[in-house]
## 1
Amino acid sequence: MVLQRIANPRPSGHPSSILGVGVRIIIMKENTKRGLGVIACIVLIIGIFYLFSFLNYVFSGPLEKKTACFESFNPATNSTENVCLTVEVADTERRRATGLMFRKVLNDSEGMLFVFQENRNHNFWMKNTNFPLDILWFDEEMQIVSMEKNAQPCLTNNCTVILSEVNSVYALEVNAGFADRIGLEIGKKMSLK
């Protein structure tokens, strides 16, 4: 069908008619090869991307989970009780850089614990985070040394950097309002199981 559309309109016995059709067939074959080559390259690139994504998942695995607990005073019972969260541990550069970005929801009993290699000021930003957070920074003894309550999501490229007031080796991201709800303040300790 394609040959009929591009074939030379000269009579079929004419010598230039046969040569024209032959040249056009060769050109069509070359263009088809190029087109298939481009498609093969695109499929290969997509395949390599998915392979690296899969290998990254296999070798980095799911985030380790721990239980983080705080003592909280309950005025209803006039006693102190433990309030615990299940926290995902972000202990590599890549995991810390990703944090809670792109997550749709964070349950009230969940959080993310960032473990740093150095005791220094560690900054955060809320880029591509879909919900407000409380960010708590801790020293080596797991005492709160700095807090940022109700940090707001940032869905643009111009996000505010949130910096701890003092050096820390851990940070915990939880849903906004958690720190006030259980009465967290500077100096309160977190236990990790």
## 2
Amino acid sequence: MHFPPFSTATGGRAHAGARGRASGGLANAKVSGQLGQKPQGGRPESGISAMARALGITRKEVERALLIAALAPEAKQAAVEVGLDDNQAALLDAAKEKTPEAQVVSLKARAKKQSARRKATRADADVKKRAAREVASLLVDCVPADAVDRLLAGLHEAGWTDVANAFFHAVLRRRAEERPASTRPEGEGAP
């Protein structure tokens, strides 16, 4: 039911009777029947949201940090020992495990897997460097001096930077060998 403003209901007299005197002349003021203050913005914020705002990070980052903080002490120690204490993905995977023992096993397995991957990557890099040096030594013997710059540019354009770098250094060594001893800088002996 809608009630008109007080002054309208009393025929324009703002202070009609006890009701008018009680209102103190605030005829059009809206009064809430609720005694306590209404919460603003709906549902109160959770502790995670408040923490995220206070720290200046996202709610998701706070949730991840809490999961990692909840790891068992044994798992935290294992993470330090295997070098995964700064690896968020590994720590979150371990946090999914139910028992402290399973968390430790998860971290150790992850460290072993990463170590094997690094060794394979290093071995691949060594093979590539050796192959690049061999190709470069063949190119130095076959490419005329006036075509060196074009070949270097072509190798770089093709994405063969390892071969291009090895070829460049092989060319420099060859030029140093071909230079007469009298024109070499002091301290640079014959090869």
## 3
Amino acid sequence: MQKHYLTKAIFATACLLTFTGMASSEDLVVSQPDPELLDVVPVWPKRVVVNVPVTDILMLDPTEGKASSSHQKRMTQALFSERLEASEESQGWYHVTTFEQSQTNGNKMTIPIEGWVLADNTLEVPHFDEASITVISPKAKLFSAASSGGGMTPLSMGTQMPADNFKWGWWTVHQPDGSSAFTNESDVSALSERRAIRGSDLRKEVVHTGMLLIGTPYLEGGRSYPCMSSILQEFGVDEGGMIELIFRTFGMHVPRTSQGLYDLSVKLRQEPCAGDLLFLADVVTGEIRHVMLIVHDDLLLEASEEVKAVHTRSASEMLGKPIHRFKSGDGVPNIPKYVIYFGTYIS
């Protein structure tokens, strides 16, 4: 890299001397860039896409040994065909910026999530293809042929992929390596159709999609449905990952973190509906500590670290009274360290 920059500097100096008359073009011999050097100099940043069902994105450079366990390092997960920008490489790991996951900073501004991903779990591409279908089933798979008899790859709910040529109940999926694979129409939906769902219909579908996640393991930093236990990769969701994954199946890009979900939501004073969000905030600092999906007035869906799974629970038992009896900012009788807030992403 330094030699290449030096060559450019020599060339610029030669041009200047010739222009000012201090030397003629015949007097100057400018070395050309070494082709072999240019071949090995990496060009950053790189466009990469995930080429495995799911991969962890770690907070710290894993080659520096700053974290003591994997769950402390995991910041989030990226799904098959998800787009990333790699800015550097360190011992087989890329430092990446996500295009499809966000959080908020102290000023409540949206910022992308960054972290480290195994380079082997991604593939460099010249450009990003626009996704056209999304996985809506917990049983979705990619097949090597338009039948269930070929080799297959499991897919997490929320996976979005470029696809076309729908025929005989199968979509043709364009994989990151340029090859084609196939997925059954019953497991996916066109993003254009999902984005067209509005109002009360969207509320019903959001709750229905959320209920499909019941039993999914709790995983700190998790953002994937456990589509196959034999894959050597942990699957699961945390509270923010669960909510983001649900809305992602509708082509909606909401923040990945609980705090971000609150910051960018439309705030509700009272009487939230099914599909809206209930937040628990620290009574002292005001920071959001937990988020749950409202199923109905006395039922909540949450990814629970205590239960170690996604499950439903009674609002009355957890909070001390039904949801309709709360207003945003109220204290929680059964959990005095929290106050309640409501927000929504459904208009």
## 4
Amino acid sequence: MLFSRKKQRLPAFYTDVERTALEAHITKYFGNIAAVIHDIDSSDINVDIAVIAPTSERNFFTLVTIGMGAYRMERPREMSKFEIIPEYAELLICLPPDWDMQGILKGATHDKNCYWPVRLLRDTAHIPAQDNILIDQGSFFSTERPYADNTKLCGVLAAGPDNVFDEVSWDTEKHFDVCVMPGGKEVNFFQLVPLYRDEIEYLSLHAGTSNEEEAIFYDYLYTRGTVTLENAVFSMIVDITRKSIMDYIDA
């Protein structure tokens, strides 16, 4: 779902107090920050990326943006004042434990096979400021070409992160996916789930319709999703060679 709204003044950055609060929230709920990939282009917002290493409980990398939430995504005029939408957001993506994280940390931007999740996080994080589009749970985007040579994934869906993190028996305190900043500002966390072309086309036809077809898609995404890759119908952790959800829906 894409929503346009009035453009606000840029650049937008967190205060030191806000950044400290956000990093504390990430550490408490997503894991210890092992490294930070710094953004060198701060023309509108500064999107650093926190890297959380795999653990015995959560055997996957988690990459979380730090900076997108400094920009306020204003309510579009066409939306009812009673609709609840996020004003501030950060993004995360989960990668398998064998991902070439050293290549990412060394700045191997030329190696799309390892670096594309970082680009995806940053490119998506800049969308509200650059393209006047609000990102909420259920927002999706696509590109003309796959993200890398070793995968056909070419689109992305913003989803709630609870499907992954609730299943690993960690602290699931209510609203862990919302960071309340000093002063009361709320920053929402959305997980980016890469999709195939046929999945994006299916969502384009049915998203927001509340019909059976939409329900079936999200059933595979959430109810049948899993945090492991072995024998998974669908994994919220990036799997560059997974089967398309459409293979199951069309079966």
